[in-house]
Amino acid sequence: MIKKPSEVDTVPTLLSVVADLLRGDKHSRQTIAAATGKSLPTADRWIDQLEASLPNVRRLREGKTTWIAYDGRRLPSRSAATGACVAASLGALFEGSQQERNLKDARDFVLRERGELYGDLDRKFVLAPRGGESALPEAGPSLDDVIGALLENRRLRFDYAHNDGKTDALTIEPLSLVVFDHQFYVLAKRDTDSAFYPYRFARMARVAKLDDEFTYPLKGEYDPKSILAQGFGIHTYGTGAVEDVEVILSGAWANFSLTHRWHPSQRATKLDGGRVSVTLQVRLCRELQTWILGFGEHAAVARPEHLAQVIAERLKNAVETYDTRVGSGPSVAKAKRPAGERPQKRRAR
């Protein structure tokens, strides 16, 4: 320990305390005051300054005495602790799987290592899942297998139910777990045509992580962001090349589009009459059609012309559906509405 000097300057004295800490000694307010001849309030200020200024110096509590000591391990940064607090809120996406607990455990570990404590974190950072993953929590163990296979570069085997009702037994090389609209998809290359395909987790049954390993492709061979950016939504395939799509929005959706982004390539431009032009560069697919149809009478396709024709035909079919009569009674739409209830207009959220 430091020998008490008769008269010393503050800087050399403080450095001698730092040297003690680096050698593995620990100090309390009492030992600093006794070794340096400084007062207890001065020792308290030094402790605060040392903890704030020196990496890996932190306080330890032993009985009624608080010590400061140097921990040679590299502690997580303050920004890492903040990120962990925010990331743990994503645990709601993984309801019922080990990953839900893992996210919170990681947050608690980082905070514990830094000696920090924040209250009510589960209420300060909240994820509101839009429906959430329908397969959870029951399929939690299967999701853990998917994540394990991704981390370890191992093949997956499962039974897959297609949209047409057919079921296939598949073995794939999982490349990415994609969260889209709060639903899980496993992106992999199909054996039939070597195209990348998003397998819907909720339609995967009897999931098994195999012992077979595979070599993960180089970024030049596989970049999930680039693949997904070419489509609209989760589907990685479409009809033809990427095209310029322009949709004119009106009403409340026009203002909404100025502060909302549906696609990375999106551009919004104000037009006369309160309208807004929204342009995208995507492959045409049914998801894009459904998006446009969702705006109802507040959307008009400006280009390409063949997409405008498809939307017009589908709107015509929708009108015919609502105009269907049963005998001489009211339309189907009116028959399903309780008596006296007026239809409500859809509002932008």
Describe, in plain words, how this protein is organized in 3D.
With 349 residues, this protein is of the alpha+beta class. It contains twelve helices and 13 strands. The protein has helices at 10-22, 29-36, 40-53, 78-87, 98-114, 121-124, 140-152, 224-229, 252-257, 286-293, 305-323, 332-335, and strands at residues 27-28, 57-62, 65-70, 154-161, 167-172, 174-180, 183-189, 196-200, 204-213, 239-249, 267-270, 276-284, 299-303. The protein has a four-stranded antiparallel β-sheet.
Which structural traits does this protein have?
single chain; 349 residues; alpha+beta; Arc Repressor Mutant, subunit A; SH3 type barrels; 3-stranded antiparallel β-sheet; 12 helices; 25% strand; elongated; disordered N terminus
Give a nutshell description of this structure.
The protein has 349 residues and is of the alpha+beta class. The protein is 35% helix and 25% strand.
Describe the protein's topology.
Layout lengths: L9 H13 L4 E2 H8 L3 H14 L3 E6 L2 E6 L7 H10 L10 H17 L6 H4 L15 H13 L1 E8 L5 E6 L1 E7 L2 E7 L6 E5 L3 E10 L10 H6 L9 E11 L2 H6 L9 E4 L5 E9 L1 H8 L5 E5 L1 H19 L8 H4 L14
Antiparallel strand pairs: 1-3, 2-3, 4-5, 4-9, 6-7, 7-8, 10-12, 10-13, 11-12
Helix pairs in contact: 2-3, 4-5
Distance between the termini: 66 Å
- The ordered string of helix (H) and strand (E) elements is HEHHEEHHHHEEEEEEHEHEEHEHH
Number of domains: 4
| Helix-residue proportion | 25-40%
Supply the CATH architecture of the largest domain: Roll
Characterize the biggest β-sheet: 4 strands, antiparallel
Mean pLDDT: 86
CATH class wording of the largest domain: Mainly Beta
User: How are the strands of the largest sheet arranged?
Assistant: 11-12-10-13
Strand content: 15-25%
CATH topology type of the largest domain:
SH3 type barrels
DSSP helical segment count = 12
Radius of gyration, taken over Cα atoms and rounded to an integer in Å: 31 Å
Structural class: alpha+beta
Low-confidence stretches: 3-8, 326-338
